[in-house]
Specification:
- This protein is of the alpha/beta class and about 350 residues long.
- Helix content is about 50%, strand content about 10%.
- The structure holds manganese (II) ion (MN).
- The site of manganese (II) ion has 6 residues, from loops.
């Protein structure tokens, strides 16, 4: 540990209890953490990079297939930026939270096919999409799955980059979807020329997605978040992000992880909750101030609307509770924060017993 830094005993006790040993203390507190692993340690990374670069070189139309939450939106934007330095023939697809739901779908693949898509790179989803990847292959569409979700016996066809694959020996299993996408970007940058400025910019997105997806703030995630935050503090390279920080009344020079959790992430999420998650991607890809401002306005409005729906639902729920509690029932109220709908469950409460549900 650095001599001049005094760490209070109680803090040391806490981090030891959390498994941070003496040898990791300096790294844990360092503003410039070094801990990072070779992206090619991910078991299918080499195959994945080869497949992707082959699609780039043969001019196939590449589609990044994401998700409507912040992790999915930052992952999609990150790969759009990096692959966009190698080819113009790259676009993205975010399924609708309301009509399609999470993950790969046949209907979405049909749409991509009709649109001329020839190679799908999933981010933050796809590990268990066996039928859907098989369907894509039957249409002549190649796939590369990148994901961080738990895997089951059902596994996507073709190449899957995911530290949670049972045979994968990557040293850290806690990456966000955007962490895995960033690893793919690093592996591409080790194989082809990608401008350093772009790699620095996308690290900011990796930090946002990792924080928003509530990943454990240990190991390589700390490196990603600290390095990404430092890039934001030094000027914030991503135009859209800088505008959103500004218009949220925050200061990029002092932005903290909690500002991202409570001030930035909900706005990026709000567009997906209310319909069109692509606004978040458009924000991060914005090339002019006017475009960035337009996206910020839409996100901030969507977030206000989301809040209003949530507050209404909460009030409605409280009203339902008052009525039911008066009858002495055991009550749970489920609030859907996307639709503002409330659903009430009642169970007769008998003193000394668990609530009975069989006889109702
Ligand atoms: Mn995720």
């Amino acid at each position: 540990m650095h001599e001049s830094v005094h760490i209070p005993e109680i803090i040391l006790k806490i981090i030891r209890a959390r498994g941070i040993g003496e040898d990791m203390t300096e790294e844990f507190f360092s503003p410039r953490p070094q801990l990072a692993y070779d992206p090619f340690l991910l078991s299918e990374m080499k195959t994945g990079v080869d497949l992707l670069l082959d699609a780039v070189d043969s001019g196939r139309r590449i589609v990044i297939y994401g998700d409507y939450d912040v992790d999915g939106i930052t992952s999609t934007s990150l790969l759009m930026k990096v692959i966009g330095t190698l080819t113009d023939n790259v676009t993205y697809y975010i399924p609708s939270r309301l009509d399609e739901g999470y993950g790969l779908h046949r209907e979405s693949i049909d749409r991509i096919h009709e649109d001329g898509g020839e190679f799908i790179v999933t981010v933050d989803c796809g590990s268990v999409s066996r039928d859907e990847t098989a369907y894509a292959h039957s249409l002549g569409i190649g796939t590369l799955v990148t994901d961080h979700h738990n895997v089951s016996d059902v596994r996507a066809e073709g190449t899957v980059i995911n530290p949670k694959l049972s045979e994968d020996t990557y040293p850290f299993k806690g990456l966000a979807g955007v962490g895995v996408a960033y690893k793919l970007a690093l592996a591409v940058a080790r194989t082809r020329e990608v401008p350093k400025a772009v790699m620095a910019e996308v690290l900011e997105l990796a930090a946002i997605g990792t924080i928003a997806d509530i990943m454990p703030m240990v190991d390589e995630n700390r490196t990603i978040v600290k390095c990404g935050l430092r890039s934001i503090h030094l000027g914030c390279r991503n135009r859209g992000l800088r505008h959103l920080i500004d218009q949220s009344g925050l200061d990029y020079r002092t932005l903290r992880a909690s500002d991202i959790s409570f001030g930035i992430a909900p706005k990026i999420n709000a567009s997906g909750r209310l319909g069109d998650a692509s606004v978040g991607v458009r924000l991060f890809l914005a090339e002019t101030d006017a475009e960035a401002d337009e996206c910020c306005r839409m996100l901030i409005n969507a977030n206000q609307e989301r809040r209003r729906l949530q507050d209404d639902a909460f009030e409605k729920g409280l009203g339902m509770l008052d009525d039911e509690l008066a009858k002495g029932d055991f009550v749970t109220v489920e609030i859907n924060d996307s639709t503002g709908r409330c659903h009430i469950e009642k169970q007769r409460y008998v003193q000394g017993h668990r609530p009975l549900d069989q006889d109702r």
